[in-house]
Amino acid sequence: MKLSSPRGTGDIYGEDIDYRNFVIDTARKVFEIFNYREIITPAFEYTEVFSRSIGESTDIVQKEMYTFPDRKGRSLTLRPEGTASIIRSVIENKFYSDSMPLKLFYIGNMFRYERPQKGRMREFWQLGVESIGSDNPILDAEVIWMLNLLYKKLGFKKLVLKVNSIGCVKCRSEFIKEFKKSLNKSDLGKLCSDCRKRFKKNPLRMFDCKKSSCMEVIAKAPDISSFLCSGCRKNFEQVLRYLKNLKIEYKIDTGLVRGFDYYTRTIFEIVSEDLKSAQNALGGGGRYDNLINQLGGPDIPAVGFAVGIDRTIMLMKQLGIKVKRKAGKSRVYLTAMDENCQDYSLNILKYLRDLEVICDISFKNRNLKTEIKWAEKNDYDFVIIIGEDEIKSDSLTIKDIRKFKQYKINWKTQKEKITEIIGAGDYG
Ligand code: HAM
Question: Tell me: domain 331-422, CATH 3.40.50.800, correct?
Fold first, then answer.
């Protein structure tokens, strides 16, 4: 049998690692500016953590979880998202007794048994934030601000930020009542078998269905925003006012519902119109004021978001957004022309590595032209040549392969010139 990675998973290497590091480093900087601290939770949890928070009738819980018994028969699930695990941790560790709001961020791999396609994987990476302990709409605005700032810093120009409010439990039940009433027999006949079940158990989840006949029926539904109670309406207006104040452009999308049961009030998504596939959401989130209480913790509200790292990288590459391999540092390649040069080269290599210069050496003894071509192809900025001549004269030759300049340095008396030349390159 030919070995391959499981369907919907992939190896991350080469250029994608540079993109990934750039996305993660940029996110860390943004999150730290806003005073968020990192949290790492296990990649699997007891199944209940997800089923009780994401919602029994959601697609994720119904169809997409990797659930398995461990050797003692306990049901475990590979995390399909980060929020539920973090809330489990906050409750278990009683983090809520510390100062509030508690601001956390996370980076991790998630698992969903979905039909793989471009931008949709069975194992994918997310980074996200959760702000726990305040219902102040300024925190809704703060997380949206972070999401917006992150994508700006990554180099995106044309993303759309969609926002909506799905109200509290009270206004949502009014909406659901009216929505159910608005569907006649012929509408119900057009629904897929899943949506017929959803209609009975959790009609809001019908909005996640991607089947065209169901989408047609749902298009006739009243707007959830017209059912907001005065408290939720005022709250949403405040969020929008703060966004305007922060000069963050948004579009109100009254059709946005998001596929998790835990949301209340504000929800949002950042989408790209350049991503033609259905997988055009780069990130999304919202407020979840009842989840902590529902999972056995105190009655404290929270808001957060997550973004897909893989999908973000895919779009960066598609849009031609370039990233630097190692910002601000030149890369140096040493070439020892024959075996007699190896000891001498090793000393130079040690000298450079002690000074934390990014460098490597090949002892392949290929001809110089091949070596330089290879160095260019592999993203080096300088080649240091060590041949018979150099050894005889205690020297080394440095070639700036970007600027086509060459320098000869005496190894015994001019060592410090090496870093002067390499440093002056300021490549990255
Ligand atoms: P989500 O919308 O399910 O939200 O996921 C956030 C992002 O993860 C998506 O916008 C997408 O970029 C990426 N993503 C999701 N599924 C896949 C997949 N199968 N393949 C590749 N990328 C994917 C959440 O997970 C919520 N926990 C967000 C949140 C945090 N809400 C409140 N706090």
Answer: yes
